Each structure stands twice: as C-alpha cells, then as structure tokens.
Amino acid sequence: MSDSAPIVIVGAGHAGGTAAALLRQYGHAGAVILIGDEPLGPYQRPPLSKAWLKGEADGDSLRLKAPEWYADNGVDLRLSQTVAALDRATRAVRLSDGETIPYDHLILATGARARLLPIEGADLNGVMVLRTAADAEALKAALSSQRHRVKRLAVIGGGYVGLEAAASARALGAEVVILERESRILARVACPVLSRFFQDYHRERGVHFILDAAVERLIGEDGRVRGVRLADGSVLDCDVVLVGVGAVPNDELARAAGLDCQDGILVDLAARTSDPAIFAIGDVTRRPMPLYDTVMRLESVPNALEQARQAAAAITGRPAPEPETPWFWSDQYDLKLQIAGVPVGCDDMVVRGDPGAPGFALFHMAGDVIRAVEAVNAPGEFLVGRQLIGRRTPVCRERLADRATPMKSVAL
Predict the structure, then answer these.
(1) Quick one: which of 100, 107, 95, 148 has its CA closest to 125?
(2) Domain 127-245, CATH class in plain words
(3) pLDDT digit string, tens, across residues 302-358
(4) pLDDT in tens, 108-154
(5) How far apart are CA 160 and CA 46, in angstroms?
(6) Roughly what angle, to the nearest 10 degrees, separates helices 301-316 and 14-25?
(7) How much is the pTM?
(8) In CATH, what number does 7-45+63-113+248-316 get?
(9) Are 285 and 264 in contact (CB under 8 A)?
(10) Which regions of 68-141 does DSSP assign to beta strands (E)?
(11) How far is Cα 22 from Cα 309, in angstroms, rounded to an integer?
(12) Distance CA 108, CA 277 (A)
C-alpha cells in the first residue's frame, strides 16, 4: 500500500473517529477523509442519556478529540455531509451534493438509528428519540423548561436507554412512566432477576411502570403530544414521549452497493466486508463471535473500538488484535451495571451476593464455564468474570456463589 493511498471513512461517530485516529497512530501517512452527517465532530454517545441530559456534561467533555486535532493530523473532517452512493467499480463515494471522492480503502461506520413507531401521532411535537447530541439537547430542553414545566414523561420501551433517561428525568424533577409491551422490562437484553431488581429500584425512586402495554396511538393537541392511548382503551396523559424501542442499522448504502448484509453489514474478524477494499465497523455491522460460534450485531462502544482496531490494523498491515470478550455497561442513579459476554448456550445461572441489593453478580453458565456475567456495583466480579469468559476457564460453582471467596480463587 502506498503512503499516499486515500482512505475514506463514512460516519464520524465513535467508531469512525477512532478509526481515523488509529490509522495515524499505526503509521498511515496518506490522505484520510472522515465524513459525518452531524454538525459535530466525533463524540461519545453514552453520556447523552445520563450526564448530558442532567446538565452535568458539555460538548467539550463529549469530544473524542479536540477540534484542532483533525487538521493537525491531516484528517480531512467533513461535517454535515451525506454520502448518497458507493461505486465499488470505480472505488468512489458520491456525496449528496454531487461531489465524488475516490478511495483506496473505505470504512463504513454509519451506525444505527432509533427505531420509530409506525402509529398515528408519532410525528407530533414532543415525541422524541435519544440517539444523537441533538436528540439529547431537545429532550433536556423539554425536561428543563421553566415556562412549559414537564408534568410527565412517557417512555415507550423498557430497555437500557429508556431506563437511563428515566433516571435522569427523575433527577430533573419530572414524573416518569415507562410503557413496556413485554411482561417485564429489559426482556430482550437481561435475565428476569436483573429485570426485577431494576424495576424495583426505579419504582422506589418514583418511576411508574405499565407492563404488557400495547401502544395504539399518540394523542395530540395543537400539533403537540398530550397523551398515549393503549390498546385497552386507557389514555395516559403526558407532556413528552420518549420512544426507546431499539435501533435499526444504517446499512442502506452497503445494500445498494451489493455488499452482503443481514440486519447489518456482514464482516469478518478483520472488519472486512464482502468487498476486500471495504471495511465496516460499529453498530452497523453483524460480526463473527468465535467465542460463541455465531454472528451477532453488537451495539456498544467497546465493540466499536475493537472493530476500529481490526480495520486499522488490516489496512496498515499490522498484526490482527486479539479477539475481545464483548462487554457493555449502564449507569442509572447510583448503580453501575457491567455486563461481559453474551448468555448464549447457557444451562444454568449462579447468583453471587444478594440480588435484592446493589453489589451482586449473576453468572450464566454452560456446565462449569461462565458464558456471561451481569454485575451490579460489583466491579471485581465483572473484571475477573470477563477474563474467565474469554479464556473459557472452568470454575467451581460453589466457590463462585460464595461472596466470601475471592474471585481469583473460583477457577478450577
């Protein structure tokens, strides 16, 4: 590869911004063009539902790099620009304004977008999602408004984003009700024990829950949302609605260009797509997980960083980084939930500590091997558990369940 080879990165989020920085760190001296459709340079998204929403963070604290870093390091950062199409035959991307940019290697880091509700009233003012800094700023303004004091925030969806936003809204003094279509919150991403703990914790802090809730439509007045109508005919009055029902990968560019996709862009362990010149990283990808003998789409910062390292290493000819155990986290009130691994192929669960109070961990087992751990205010269990998962180290279940036994002593 020539040092002058242009590399184009489509998507200036956490994954794309990290890839640009790693290319320079790994010694690539050629042109790097980073294209983002937001007006902001690469920034952290996890604080949007937490510190940003509560007014405890500003734009400077969210940035991955200082604004001047990009020019100083020869990264051509193009903001508020959209890529309309990829031309694999000529190795070029076409912007929505008609400009064509050639590439030697292309990295797709287009992320995912909030899933919308296909119901009447979804386009009313006051119906919001939480995915970008602009989304978070709009929600913060609504919750903090003195002139139009929010009386109630209705959160549709009891996932992590909804729960984090609920905790932040309570800190701002808003009344919050969570509407979940399943019989428990976190039904698709956590075990029942963890669901019950978080639901109880939120209830104790004033959050209301309506489970098995089928949202029929949103009711408006003068173009603004004023209520949520459920399938049973009941109407919940509200001032703001936050829709948190998952995310959709932004893989349209890849599909139109003929790349292999399956609810996300399919990549290999080097983050390479079905076109050897094109890589894809972050929330938009469906990637192999050798630890679990399957492919998955992971929406997390650690996944974005790992795939950025994979792509940058492959492009610059460096050795491939060691595969990592996937991990995730969520901050709610004074709780830190840390999850390592994925509970795939499990046959049992070992509980360590009291699951009714912070400071416990849930280990999902396949025989005597840990496949995943969910730890609430238990960093030691998370850290050691993550190591044991990655090494597939057999453990003694009795010692694992005994909080008095140090985690370093649970391995067989």
Answers:
(1) 148
(2) alpha beta
(3) 999 999 999 999 999 999 999 999 999 999 999 999 999 999 999 999 999 999 999
(4) 999 999 999 999 999 999 999 999 999 999 999 888 766 556 689 99
(5) 11
(6) 40
(7) 0.95
(8) 3.50.50.60
(9) yes
(10) 75-78, 83-87, 92-95, 100-102, 105-108, 112-114, 127-128
(11) 7
(12) 11
